[in-house]
């Protein structure tokens, strides 16, 4: 393998004019009109771990009898660059799914980042987040832990284990080490309580399960169950299986996406 020589100034060498694909710039790439339905909540998303956090949250709210959690769900095909269209960028200037609009307010509220959407919905409906200061703080501790830690699983371990053009020892070792440290943290935590933050199912569980629960169940990256030796984490496995059986989780995973065009 040739040694990479750091240039004095980095230059992007893969310029293209396609709608999709990574670029070192942000912003609108093409004009777009997103559909808008009649439900109070308009969700523009995809069935990725970050995307299903929100469909699971909405279905859990509906299981709790929250009628105002009705939503229209539209598919944003990130492979075709639909997240860079003008209407989507108005909702989320960062061009990442999921993004949501709450039409129930006099002035519609635009929310992006999955953690922010979960917190918004929990506070709007006063569900799935404790109201006491200790429980609320512990829930937010773990919600923001997931937001900060998840990229080490997806963009780190997952990318170099499953998607990189060729296996490279250094990044695979680095991100596998961190992935297993995080899995061990969750396993130790769940040895002491039934849910991530205590005795109650919260938005912290909803945020963490799509990434770590599905990984623990071998549903994220082919061969990762054996590679990560996930049998080492029995408490995490038990929690992952228990959460997977919840009707709201199953409905959130099976939610039907409407096309945007």
UniProtKB/TrEMBL annotation:
Domain GST N-terminal span(s) in chain numbering: 39-129
SUPFAM superfamilies recorded: GST C-terminal domain-like, Thioredoxin-like
Boundaries of every GST C-terminal domain copy: 132-261
InterPro entries: Glutathione-S-Trfase_C-like, Glutathione-S-Trfase_C_sf, Glutathione_S-Trfase, Glutathione_S-Trfase_N, Thioredoxin-like_sf
Superkingdom to which the source organism belongs: Bacteria
CDD domains, per the entry: GST_N_Ure2p_like (cd03048)
One Pfam family linked to the record: GST_N
Protein name, UniProt field: Glutathione-dependent disulfide-bond oxidoreductase
Source organism (scientific name): Paenibacillus yanchengensis
Gene responsible for this protein: yghU
């Amino acid at each position: 393998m040739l040694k990479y020589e750091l240039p004095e100034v980095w230059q992007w060498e893969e310029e293209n004019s396609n709608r999709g694909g990574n670029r070192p710039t942000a912003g609108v790439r093409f004009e777009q009109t997103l559909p808008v339905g009649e439900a109070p909540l308009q969700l523009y998303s995809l069935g990725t771990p970050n995307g299903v956090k929100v469909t699971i949250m909405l279905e859990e709210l509906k299981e709790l009898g929250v009628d105002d959690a009705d939503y229209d769900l539209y598919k944003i095909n990130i492979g075709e660059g639909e997240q860079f269209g003008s209407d989507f960028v108005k909702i989320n200037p960062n061009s990442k799914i999921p993004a949501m609009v709450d039409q129930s307010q006099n002035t519609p509220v635009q929310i992006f980042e999955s953690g922010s959407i979960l917190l918004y919905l929990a506070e709007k409906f006063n569900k799935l987040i404790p109201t006491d200061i200790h429980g609320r703080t512990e829930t937010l501790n773990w919600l923001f832990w997931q937001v900060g830690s998840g990229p080490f699983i997806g963009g780190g371990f997952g990318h170099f284990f499953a998607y990189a053009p060729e296996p490279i020892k250094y990044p695979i070792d680095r991100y596998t080490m961190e992935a297993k440290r995080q899995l061990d943290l969750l396993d130790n935590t769940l040895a002491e309580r039934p849910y991530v933050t205590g005795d109650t199912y919260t938005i912290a569980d909803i945020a963490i399960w799509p990434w770590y629960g599905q990984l623990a169940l071998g549903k994220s990256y082919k061969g990762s169950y054996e590679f990560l030796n996930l049998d080492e984490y029995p408490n995490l496995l038990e929690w992952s299986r228990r959460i997977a059986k919840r009707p709201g989780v199953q409905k959130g995973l099976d939610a039907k996406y409407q096309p945007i065009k």
